[in-house]
Design brief:
- With 152 residues, this protein is mostly helical.
- The chain has two domains: 39 residues, no CATH class; 92 residues.
- Helix 3 runs antiparallel to helix 4.
- It is elongated.
Length: 152
């Protein structure tokens, strides 16, 4: 067997791609990235999911900044009014709006955590439902798969 054959990817009996033999780290990494089966989540799907999360975080920060700016405008506007009651009302309203922005930020990040966890559980449930009737891991007999070596 040549060195090229030892470093190539092969399809095992379960239909998943595994890396054979040793080889340099760059070649192994490139074959890992180019393969469609890089564990449970493909590289393209992972990048797409990550970009979606970044868009969500940026939108959350933008909304929080706008609401916080509105609250800050009310607070600074309250300082320029000479009437004590109007100053107090504007100041309390500005404080409430700023506090709302902080609550929205924390709620948004809590929702983000919930989404990530629920997506992972959903993926795991889907994979469990696709397992063979024996209930075992389809990769258990494959010595090259991480599940047979105790995971990652």
């Amino acid at each position: 067997m040549s060195q090229t054959d030892a470093n190539s990817t092969a399809e095992n009996s379960q239909g998943t791609r595994t890396e054979r033999g040793g080889g340099d780290a760059v070649g192994s990494f490139l074959s890992y990235v180019q393969s469609d089966q890089t564990g449970v989540v493909g590289v393209r799907e992972g990048i797409s999911y990550g970009l979606g999360l970044i868009v969500y975080i940026l939108a959350l920060l933008l909304v929080t900044a706008v609401v916080n700016g509105i609250g800050g405008a009310f607070l600074t506007g309250a300082l320029s009014v000479d009437n004590g009651i109007v100053t107090a009302i504007l100041g309390l309203f500005g404080f409430a709006v700023t506090l709302t922005a902080i609550v929205v930020l924390f709620a948004g990040f809590a929702g983000l955590q919930y989404k990530i966890i629920s997506d992972a559980v959903s993926r795991g449930t889907d994979l469990r439902d696709r397992l063979p009737a024996s209930g075992g891991c389809p990769h258990a007999a494959d010595p090259q798969h991480p599940s047979s070596r105790g995971g990652w």
